[in-house]
Amino acid sequence: MEESEVPAYYSKDLANARINLRARRYSGFLWVGVLWVIWISYFGNIPLWGMASGIALLLISLVLPVQFILGHAKYQAKLAHLTPSYERPKGH
Question: What is the pTM for the complete model shown?
C-alpha cells in the first residue's frame, strides 16, 4: 500500500494542533517528576533552600492533579473544536 492510498483522517495542521493540545495537558506531570528528581538530587540537602523548594514542590504536586481534573471539560471542548464533524453510519 502506498502513502497516497492511505486515507488521511486529519490534515497535518490539525494533527499538530491536537498533539500540541495533548502535550500541554500532560506536560505538567512530566515537569513535576523532573523537578522532584532535581530536588532529591541537589536541593534536598540544602537547609533553607531545600525546605522552601520542597514545600513549593509539594504544593505544586498537590495542586496539579486537581487542576488536571478540573480542566477536563475545557480540554474536551478544545479537542471537540479540533475534531472534524462527520456523519455516523446508520445503526451506530
Answer: 0.73
Domain ranges within the chain, ordered by starting residue = 28-83
Q: Compute the distance between CA of residue 8 and CA of residue 76 in angstroms, rounded to an integer.
A: 22
Written as one letter, the residue type at 66 is V
- CA proximity to 79, closest of 31, 28, 20: 20
d(CA 16, CA 14): 5
Give the integer Cα–Cα distance in Å for 53 and 39: 8
Per-residue pLDDT for 1 more than 70?
A: no
pLDDT, tens only, 62-80: 999 999 999 999 999 999 8
Specify whether the CB–CB gap between 79 and 18 falls below 8 A: yes
Contact 71, 13 (CB under 8 A): no
Question: What single-letter DSSP state applies at residue 91?
Answer: T
